[in-house]
Design a protein that fits this description.
alpha/beta, Ubiquitin-like (UB roll), Cytidine Deaminase, domain 2, 2 domains, six-stranded mixed β-sheet, 8 helices, 32% strand, cytoplasm, Cytidine_deaminase-like, Sulfur carrier protein FdhD, FdhD
Length: 279
Amino acid sequence: MGRATERRRVVRIRDGAVSARPDTLAGEEPLEIRLNGRPLAVTMRTPGDDFALATGFLVSEGVVAAAEEVRSVVYCAGARDDGTNTYNVVDVRLAPGVPVPETGLERNVYTTSSCGLCGKASLDAVRTSTRFALGPGPMGITPELLAVLPERLRAAQRVFDRTGGLHAAALFSPAGELIDVREDVGRHNAVDKLVGRALREGLLPLEETILLVSGRASFELAQKAVMAGVPFLAAVSAPSSLAVELAAETGLTLVGFLRGRSMNVYAGEHRLDLAGAPV
């Protein structure tokens, strides 16, 4: 079975001195997601939480929105020609009566650890309708509370400490308490793992949460937040123009460049407590 990290020999050069030593690398392997036995998508991911990743992906695609809509999630045996299991193929079986999206199955999406979803025919196809209208969510969030969240996320990144090569996503309560954190070579996978775990625990929609991501806020990450009912998305780096557009359309609060006490609020500032601050 794949591992989250691997040890490899490297030649290290420091100030002209050369030495050989083992180094810890972030694991990256393909995961094929099947829906009712048919191939749906392939993503490059860090092994671990594969069932959550698969179900979280289905939430973002609008296929499921509740735990009871998923009958089973299993690794597919005999993934190799010799019959051995790679643990890199997951089959999600929907509960009876849950419709299978034929258009999605025809797509056979390929996702990578860098770009997220690729190959969708048009922007309209990406704007999947969510079953969770964004409510008020956490209100009165102060800039002071947001300022401490990146450090709390960083402190919880156990695999990053060993590899330096993983993105992370975390859910926080309105009081700033860490609810869950996931790491992956793909920032979109880290969010899917969070959402999938929440789905399996019956916690969707994630109405009273703040989603923090360690990189930039792409359109896809904004969409995943909306699809899971998350009202507040913060990123330590920049958002894209489409992410801002989607946030404005759906009522999502979007904060970017969250670095210490500095940040930009791109949409949904009504959820922040800016009392006393000039706007």
